[in-house]
């Protein structure tokens, strides 16, 4: 009798849990890029932050009007600054089913391009993709604690982006499908040139735990594109195209609905009046000069083992694994797991039990590493094994105790294979 009662109780709990899951509303997070003190790209008559917000609000209004079973959350609805990590936190905290970040592209003065492109998280395969990621990620420089919060990531350094080569995102397939829908629907709705689906290392996408994409609506640096992006008709067409892509995506991936949505009403959408009157032309800030590959003398890298100061003993220069004998001046690869403004004890919780971690000092930070080998493939495998503990970890390289460009080190390693 007791067993029968327990069985009935178990079945009841299963049905209740299933009903609760079925009743969970689909949650969409809409992220209008930049805002407040962060203007984004600046054009002749408007700013990126205003274009992004206008399109985000039109897109969100269409979802709210036509999809009452969808919960829409905005990372911002006004002209305010929101740090990148906070945008991702909003999506993660609300257990969002989808994250869509809206941005506007730009090129240096003298270069012209047109069209819409959509990005998913991944390794950039072209220099232009890297340039877009660098520009969008540079917003973290406004955050006072960015060096620690983003584990020593430098948005201006190509070397930092090596981490994105190892991302195996379980949401990648759905993110790519979403991006395809955005390109197809939005370009058709707006008549914009289709520049395709691409991959690049965007921090705001890396920090989210659900399918996501980042849309570059067009080029504010191209006069005719800027006029379109700042116009009411342009905002409405772009917002409606993204909405139609969302409907396509949900129809394919949200299995909780049999009749996906109530029919879209074609009444006019009130275009938000976020974009101010045309402003005097503001010349874009000159791009910072690229940093030299080798650290200056003041930042000479000092590699030590983690230990209590009182018990610390000199540590010999890191040696490659026994089965990969060192070659004179051969690059040594290591896995950087975190950065801290203070030296950590071996028992510090942030090291997650890896008391054998080493560190080097650079830019006023203690940067902690695991592993040391002349065999690049060994570090790739090490990173994979530590992915759950340190998802932000990335591979760096040293030669004769000096940090070097990891891409150059990888090329040297491959030549010797």
What does this structure look like?
The protein has 417 residues and is of the alpha/beta class. It has two domains: 24-253, 3-Layer(aba) Sandwich (Aminopeptidase); 297-415, no CATH class. The protein is built from eleven helices and twelve strands. The strands form two sheets. Strands 2-1-3-6-4-5 form a six-stranded mixed sheet, sandwiched between helices. It has a six-stranded antiparallel sheet with strand order 7-9-10-8-11-12. The longest helix has 22 residues, at 2-23.
Lay out the secondary structure:
Layout: H1 2-23, E1 26-32, H2 48-66, E2 70-74, H3 84-93, E3 98-105, E4 116-121, H4 127-137, H5 146-149, H6 172-190, E5 194-200, H7 203-206, E6 212-219, H8 223-230, H9 232-253, E7 303-305, E8 332-340, E9 358-362, E10 365-373, H10 376-385, E11 394-399, E12 402-404, H11 406-415
Parallel strand pairs: 1-2, 1-3, 3-6, 4-5
Antiparallel strand pairs: 4-6, 7-9, 8-10, 8-11, 9-10, 11-12
Helix pairs in contact: 2-9, 6-9
Give the gist of this structure.
The protein is an alpha/beta fold and 417 residues long. It is 33% helix and 18% strand.
Instruction: Tell me the strand order in the biggest sheet.
Output: 2-1-3-6-4-5
CATH level-4 homologous superfamily of the largest domain: Zn-dependent exopeptidases
Radius of gyration: 25 Å
CATH topology of the largest domain: Aminopeptidase
Q: What is the number of independent domains?
A: 2
Q: Return the average pLDDT rounded to an integer.
A: 75
> Tally the helices: what do you get?
11
Question: Percent helix among the residues?
Answer: 25-40%
Low-confidence stretches: 14-22, 124-130, 146-152, 160-168, 258-263, 273-282, 292-321
The general outline is globular
Order of helices and strands: HEHEHEEHHHEHEHHEEEEHEEH
Question: In total, how many beta strands?
Answer: 12
Q: Just name the CATH architecture of the largest domain.
A: 3-Layer(aba) Sandwich
The N- to C-terminal Cα distance equals 69 Å
Structural class: alpha/beta
Strand portion, in percent? Answer: 15-25%
Query: Biggest β-sheet: count, sense, barrel?
Result: 6 strands, mixed
CATH class of the largest domain: Alpha Beta
